[in-house]
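Re: How this chain folds, sequence and tokenised backbone to follow
Notation: Tokens come from a learned vocabulary of local backbone shapes, not from coordinates.
Start of record: The labelled sequence and token lines come straight after this line.
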Amino acid sequence: MKKEKKIVEFPNLKQRLLEKAMQTMKEKKFSEALELFEQARENEYAYAEVELGMVVCYMELGQLTEARNRCKKMLREDVGDYFHVLQIYITILIQLKEYAEVKTTIEAILEEDKLPAQYAQNFYQLLEFARKMLPSEENESIEPDYNDQEEELFLLHEGNVQKQYELIQSLKHRNIRPLIPEIETYLKDELKHPVLKTFLVHILIEQGWDKETEVSKMGQQTIIVPSNLKSGEEDPFLNKIISILEDTVESDNPSLFEGLKEMLVRIHTVQFPMPFTPDKPEVWAAGLHRAGVELFGLDASDEELAAQYRVSPLEVKAVTREINKLEDFSYLRL
């Protein structure tokens, strides 16, 4: 009787297959990349990354209906980062000119309890665009019509979070200097949402406001000159955190690494322009890793992570608590 031959896979074959698929996609060889993603899918490796890669390939190859159906399936099964996949899904719907579905989908999301701050502006802009593209009887404008400055000031200080958000977004395309005293009052008000304050500071940066401005957030106060501030992408402290996570997480768990980067963006949106305290990127990298472990249901103790990042377990615990607090504020309840 013949013995069955055992099939022995090369070490890291699945990971290398996915990396090759991603590289091929970056080189815009989408048909070839699609075949590689199919092979990775058969090997049941990194399901979320593979599915998203296939969606992108189908989009680039012009097979929009297939891309839409796969994206919808990912959303239904909660595969990958939900809001990132949702953005891609809405982009596909717009390319297919399915504006009613765009409108319905975004309005349903806005009715839910939590919306990550970094996606809010984009969703509102897409919703406005979809409404404009619908027939006139369905066409509604999401931007409020603010003709009365007194009403503006009332909504900025007394309106609910959604009204404040809408007004702040409308200021992006206007000269904000006449409203500077009101903006300064808003930024000093400890009761105002920290993310909305971030949006206001970014408007001041974009419009080159070069005067000292006080900001109160999360029990901290600071004086800034908006025109001198750097964006998150230019922040050396954030880039150092990402570099540390690349060295410790990316090769072993690419999905976790991407999730931690997304988390860092969210907490930075809440914290900006306040500095991260303590001023130790290793501690924040360890805390993000710890928060990610809790979020994704993985197994790692404070002691193990502390040793890995060469910090103390007490530092990991303290920063993880801070990260969880910032994470809670990162969702705008509109």
User: Anything to note?
Assistant: The domain at 149-229 is CATH 3.30.1790 (hypothetical protein mp506/mpn330, domain 2).
